[in-house]
Amino acid sequence: MEYFQLTDSLFDITERYPVTIKVFADHGFVQLMDEEKRTTLGKALSLDIALSMREIDHKAFCDQLVEIILHQGKPNTKQDAANTIRLKGLLPCPVRLPLQESLDSFLADHEKDGYTYEAKLKAASMGLDWMKEEVKNAKLADELDDVYVSAGFDMFFETAYFGRFINSNEFFNPLPWSGVNAVFEQDNLQLNDPLNRYGIIAVVPAVFLVNTTVLGDRPIPDSWASLLDPIYAQSVSLPVSDFDLFNAILLTLDKTYGREAISKLGRNMLQSLHPAQMVKSDRSKLEKPAITIMPYFFTKMAKEGGVMKAVWPKDGAIISPIFMIGKSVAKEKIEAISTFLASEKVAEILAHQGLFPSLHPEVDNRLLPENKFLWLGWDYIAKHDLNQQFEACHAEFNQAYST
Q: Do residues 99 and 191 share a domain?
């Protein structure tokens, strides 16, 4: 056939001719209307197999595809790709909508610059799998989008994902900052990548929320070191399902206090809760944790004057960075959108609405001088296989928790 072959995947056909998605959906392939499922399921099924599975007449269906392509379809060509800027990202839930609105406004103003923009920003609660699968399957950087924004050490550093493209200099740090926000000017913190491969636009700090009633006469833990004390055995709730933050906590504790710290944390865990559940744990009928570890944002949801007390660890809030990388060959064409994402306007949304401290040099992060941070560090990242470290720390934690 002129436009496609029966052996082509559903993804390839719908990618070249987006107008065909409706035809597929009308014949029962409604999953293709969801971008994530179109990417995963669509790549796994060829047209002939898909039609056979649903007992659909091949010729009749292909005739419908050709008809809609002839009358309404326009293939995505290499020239289209050259004039298209694609952004993909995963953002913390509290800021995704305001950032999306701000981004939509920016894109509307910049369509006249000769480029077409495609931006897909999803909530962190959806997880990284939809993005990781795409990156893992890519054989060349050309198959990937132009800009990526997300938390997640494993996706950005693991060689199975972005690591191989970073190591070959096919992606770089597109942020234009030359300095760093004053709140991060702490001894040996150094959040800016010295090799300028990765950009960090903001961080997600992990702090404590203490239920003073359940805690009883035990002292309020004021640091990660004190939280590991056996007096808090089976008293701590952790965001285990928030992989980015949980992995950052485990690796940073392992680096700072040693592998035994992971065992102590495992023995002290009572249960795993989502941050929103943690905030309301004082009203739960289930066994209540005395201390919960959560992103700083969620502590502001606690009832003022209630039994829940927020604690910023004096040895520093462990941070999970929100990374940003851009495609090297697209450096000039992504300059405008990179500048927007690095703007003071975006930084204020992150810092003020999400309470995710921004690295933007000019933004007031509204933190106290004593609010310190614990960061894994570029030296640690360079010297370790993070995937192996994740596995080792998880194994240590799980063994301690289960005994």
A: yes
